[in-house]
Amino acid sequence: MLRVATIGYEGAAQAEVIDRLRAAGVEVVADVRAVATSRRAGFSKTVLRGSLAEAGIGYIHFRDLGTPKPGREAARKGRVAEMRAIFADHMKGEAAQAALLALRRQAAEARVALLCFEAEAAGCHRRALVEMLGAEADDL
Hints:
alpha/beta, Rossmann fold, five-stranded parallel β-sheet, 5 strands, globular, DUF488 domain-containing protein
């Protein structure tokens, strides 16, 4: 069975997130945001990738494992079941399935943390991805 970590950066500074990743032995961050930009300093794709590299942590953006816009809107409104249904439908697509396979392969080779915005994995599609991987997860 795969063992992955999940982490949300909501309310956290970039240095805090990187410290938590390092403390957990994470080797690769799997960015599972559909849109890898952020209003929070340090969490847009290019800046985050560079900071992670300086900390000795790899970075891969899995855009096709991100929640579609209607799912993100549902999550923001606290409608987790609706978000999960939208995400499950999205995951039936060929590109999403190919990305899930690539993530599974990466997680078999290295300690991976799934990264998204939401602080709590239970209200985020990260939890659904862990289930789809058939993995156990440490929420950092």
